[in-house]
Amino acid sequence: MPEGHTIHRLADDHRARFAGGPVRVTSPQGKFTDSAALVDGMPLTTAEAHGKHLFLGFEDTGWIHIHLGLFGKLGFGSATPAPPPPTDTVRLRLLNTHHYADLRGPTTCALITDGEKQAIHDRLGPDPLRPDAASDKAWQRVSRSRTTVAALLMDQKIIAGVGNVYRAEVLFRHGIDPYRAGKDLTRREWDAMWADLRTLMREGVRNNRIDTVRPEHMPEAMGRPPRVDDHGGEVYVYRRANMPCHICGGEIRTAGLAARNLFWCPTCQTR
Predict the structure, then answer these.
(1) Catalytic residue among 24, 198, 202, 260
(2) 228, burial (CB in 10 Å: exposed 0-12, middle 13-18, buried 19+)
(3) Known catalytic residue: 52?
(4) Which residues of 70-85 are buried (b: 16+ CB within 10 A; e: fewer)?
(5) 3-class secondary-structure state, position 223
(6) Region 34-42 average pLDDT
(7) Which of 96, 93, 20, 9 is CA-nearest to residue 49?
(8) Which residues pair with 46 in a beta bridge?
(9) Of 9, 17, 48, 52, which is the active-site residue?
(10) HEC sequence for 124-162
(11) Residue 111 carries which DSSP code?
C-alpha cells in the first residue's frame, strides 16, 4: 500500500496537470459512470491528501475521494497528439488538452460531499505532511497507550500516512525498541520522531521515493553496494532481515506486528 508521501505527490501532480481548467471525467470500467457524469467538464479546483486518502475537488459539486488500498494504481500520461484509448480496467479517467490520468483497482473511488469529506478528516490522525497537523493530538493518544509504539505508528486514527517503511525506519533512526509501549515514550522522543517524519516524508514527496539513510551511511560513504529493491531508496532496516546493520554490524530481525512485517536492529534499538 502506498505510504502518505506518495498520495501527497499524487495531489501535487493532479494540481499541476489539471487544476484551473475544465476536465473530462469518465469511467471506462463503468463502476463510476453516474458520479463521473456529475463532474464531467467542470474545473478541478484543487487536490489534497490526508494520510493515504486523496481528494479531488470540483467547485461546488463535491470531491472525488480515492483510496488506492493494496492494489490501486494511478498513472499519468500525455494527451497530445491524442491519449491512448483506456482499457476496461480503468475506473476513472481525467483528461484535458495536455494530460490524462488513469485510476485502476482502488479500494475507494467515490464522489462525496464536503460533510462526508470532513468526516474522513475527523476520523484520521494528524498527517505530518499537512500544514494544519500538530503532534499534540497524536501524543495524547500515544502517551496513554499500552500498545507497542510500532503498532501505534501504523494506526491511521493516531497518525495518518505512516506506513511500514517509515515506521521501521524512524524507530531505527531514533534507537527505539519497536516493542516499547506508547506510554513509555518520553515527549522529547515523540517530538523528535514527529519532526523526523515530517522531514523524511517531505523528501519522499520531492524525490518520489523513500530515502532514510544519513549521508555518512550512504553506499559511497561506507564503500558498500547500493540497495537493490523495487521500493528504491536507501534504508537502514526495512526489508533487510538477516542482513548486517549498517551501524553495528548485527543482524537485522523481522517479525509480524500490526498485520505487517516489522524490521529492526535489536542492538541499536534498545531505548
Answers:
(1) 260
(2) exposed
(3) yes
(4) eebebebeebeeebee
(5) coil
(6) 98
(7) 9
(8) 57
(9) 52
(10) CCCCCCCCCCCHHHHHHHHCCCCCEHHHHHHCCCCCCCC
(11) E
Chain CA centroid to CA 148, Å: 21
Distances (CA, A) of 21 to 26, 42, 80, 218: 16, 8, 17, 43
**Share of residues in the chain with pLDDT > 90 (%):** 92
Across 6-10, 65-69, 224-228, least confident range: 224-228
Give yes or no: 2 in active site: yes
- What pLDDT digit, counting tens, does each position of 15-29 carry? 999 999 999 999 999
pTM: 0.94
DSSP code at position 215: G
Question: In terms of Cα–Cα distance, which of 70, 67, 71, 74 is closest to 18?
Answer: 74
Catalytic residue among 3, 48, 169, 234: 3
Indicate the pairing of strand 108-112 with strand 53-58: unpaired
Q: Which of 2, 28, 86, 178 is catalytic?
A: 2
Q: Are 51 and 127 in contact (CB under 8 A)?
A: yes
Q: 114 near 62, Cβ under 8 Å?
A: yes
